[in-house]
Fold this protein.
Amino acid sequence: MKAHRLLLALLLALLPASGFAGSNETGAPQVAIEQGSLAGTLEGALVVYRGIPYAAPPVGTRRWKPPGPAPSWSGIRSAAEFGPACTQPALPSSSLYYEAFPRTSEDCLTLNVWAPERAQKAPVIVWIHGGSLRIGSSASPMYNGANFARRGAVFVSLNYRLGALGWMAHPALNAESSAGVSGNYGLLDQIAALRWVQANVAAFGGDPDNVTVMGESAGALSVSYLLVSPLAGGLFDKAIVQSANARAFPALAETAFGMPSAETTGERLLDDLGLRDLPAARAMDAQQLVDRATQAGFSPQGTIDGEVLPMQIIDAFDRGTQAKVPILAGINSGEVRAQRALLPPAPASAEAYESAANAVHGDLAAAFLKLYPSDRIDRSMLATARDGIYGWATERIVRKQTAAGQNAYFFVFDHCYPAARARDLCAFHAGELPFVFGRLRRENLPPNWLVPTEPADEALSQTMMDYWISFAATGTPRSDHGPVWPVTATGRPTCASITVRIRVPTRCPACSNCTRRSFSAASARIGNGF
């Protein structure tokens, strides 16, 4: 890898100082990377390259194998169009998160680059999309990286294998592997993309020594996996984690935390699909396989295999084996309002709620009921699920990273606007994304998304982009339009709320002297505690 980068650097020394090869006769920008030459598009003061393959197509006998070397080509390859989304099941068209992509394919391991036209050693942000490791695409209009590039970053977004194609383990796959493991193929794709970035991003004007990985939901889970995977060591320098979770995950070959082994789950899946062996499974149509696996209840997730994921996320942070990099991490106050299927049936009365709390929490029930009281059962259940899935994991990651000597910034997104309030979906799961990307208009959002329309929405979005991009550039979130996001040196996490009002259920020890100051259109507040 170092030899490739040295050769690329020598080649680039012969090119213009921006790192770009220039333009062809049509004015399209061109760039030389390790695989060959690319022709992109010039969009204002930005150059954009879409659909760049970063690994071999994972098809045929390469299905359920680690990503192979990226293909090379002669001549100039067009990079004007997004590659297809990875094969995935369709969501109901009524879903808030529904989005239709023009093309899907098993041959989907591509990435996209937005860069300032004359970038030099610009900070790099690598975006990993969410979607429960089951759905999603880097081609979503909401994930357009132009606003990051306009503010001086080189922005990279990527596809990775989803569902059973990306996350199934199986004993026969273990036997094929030189490491004796299987599963985690989607995570290996992400690692391959980060290696591609290290080798090639300088050609686009990016700094391979200043790379931030960023993800939301399943993308945030992926970033958490990357933080604890030894295979990702040294491939990034900072992390942005939006709505992560750190639940227990299945072990490869043994039961753990009441879950069957991952390879047992894979065996059952192929049995359910009537597939007698791997050749038959690899011959099955990709869309049919994904659809039937989804119907069979296959849940894509990481596998603790001792190789790609040596241990549970929480164990890695507790033992201090995670990547020691600055982190910006947070949750949304209304996470579960759009995920009510995660809630158990509500108790019939306050008495029944309190009885259940006592039965589950024992001598901690009083503390639980103080945080999640019985007078508003629906609100308390939403808060309990939010904190149990997202809040606890995110706060723990922030605390552990701070204890490891890294700057770690915590936020709570609690902004609401009329369309979300009308649906009782204030600060819903993923609701911060249009603000982070600066994509607030209807045409830039999924068809059923709740569109922000107030002047304060735009002000908040501009400030959040300031924070995110300055963090990627320097490791410290700053904005001329917002308050200082303070750094503590006490071993406690630095916390902030990007919020209209702060509603957080727990208080850390730093909160006894917590001070908060609001800014611009009452769109955010900040403090040194949760």
